[in-house]
């Protein structure tokens, strides 16, 4: 029931956004035509096709609204701004695609641009204010659900934070029944009404709309009693699973062939369509770089190397890719030539490393030495965004330090990644730095979206010109 209530809140919020922006589109167009002659918008312009593009963009953007999950009523300023940017970005893509496809020269670009700016401000404000007000209207006093909690005494302390996140859906706590004999003092919002043996009495005396079982009882007879009593009294039953607590790791649920499973990570890139979208993004970004940027950059680097550090243009070394399959990764050579030495090869570059020749310091700091890897992207060995690959000898060392390290090999490695865009570049000096890099890599794998790839790419592009202090 709670999931359906939240789903309804998201849908109504999206519908209000659609209606509000649709009405604003026509009112704003009328205002411009009547009172702002400086903007060349005539009544002969076919605004209907752009209105339909607005509707399509918002409908497609509805998936981004659903993705925020139960945080809809608690969006931070940054989250609300990001969500508004994604939705307005989709609207802009649809609108300008229509304009270019029809070669429409009659529509005012100033009108469209200013409309999108005002729309972003309006959507941002609605994301911050509307969900809470909608929840109060939809699930106020008349729609509250008297809720009884059942669990062990130690779980009682965890209820306060959970309730704060669910009160907007109309959850009204009326009592707590302990599965164990001890019933400790309860928070002021949740009175202790006894133990599970008192369930028949409590359900008979109080108007309970929902029972939330915080854990599955060890005794099957107790579990059966709870189910039977809830069915007999017409109460909804919501059962919380304890898999995460037992495993000590967050899990994702999945239904496969009528059986219910839990896994440690979600993997959006296991869906073929998502993989195709990511591959298309890789090609669209990498192809212009390989054709237009890489050739002149190669010439400049080669000429400077002739004077500062003669030797091969590229540094080609094996790296572990998707499924731990090795591939030859390309880089501009940024260090002086030296006799083969596995120990020296595995040494990470550090600040003022004497192995780096002068121009290479600039190349490394601005990530220009990584540009040959766009060829690895075109050949399918790498992606624009993904976990950064390291030397095989470091792979083995990091696997010993971080338990979940090998999970980064579920996807193709990237020229850049979420960790790099967050400033984790250069030498890994402490176990904490390694742990954080892997945490961000696994977060990326579990939460991949094309918009996340776009954000990381843009942030990395910015760092090419304004590199963080960790780049050297």
TrEMBL record:
Subcellular localization(s) per the UniProt record: Membrane
Single GO molecular function: phosphotransferase activity, for other substituted phosphate groups
Domain Bacterial sugar transferase: 278-465
Keyword S-adenosyl-L-methionine (UniProt): no
InterPro entries: Bact_transf, EPS_sugar_tfrase
Membrane topology: Multi-pass membrane protein
Gene3D superfamilies: NAD(P)-binding Rossmann-like Domain
GO cellular component: membrane
Pfam families linked to this entry: Bac_transf (PF02397), CoA_binding_3 (PF13727)
Keyword terms, alphabetized: Membrane, Transferase, Transmembrane, Transmembrane helix
Top-rank taxon, per record: Bacteria
Transmembrane segments: 12-29, 49-68, 80-101, 107-126, 283-304
NCBIfam families hit by this protein: EPS_sugtrans
PANTHER family hit by this protein: COLANIC BIOSYNTHESIS UDP-GLUCOSE LIPID CARRIER TRANSFERASE, UNDECAPRENYL-PHOSPHATE N-ACETYLGALACTOSAMINYL 1-PHOSPHATE TRANSFERASE-RELATED
Family statement drawn from the similarity comment of this UniProt entry: Belongs to the bacterial sugar transferase family.
Protein name as annotated: Exopolysaccharide biosynthesis polyprenyl glycosylphosphotransferase
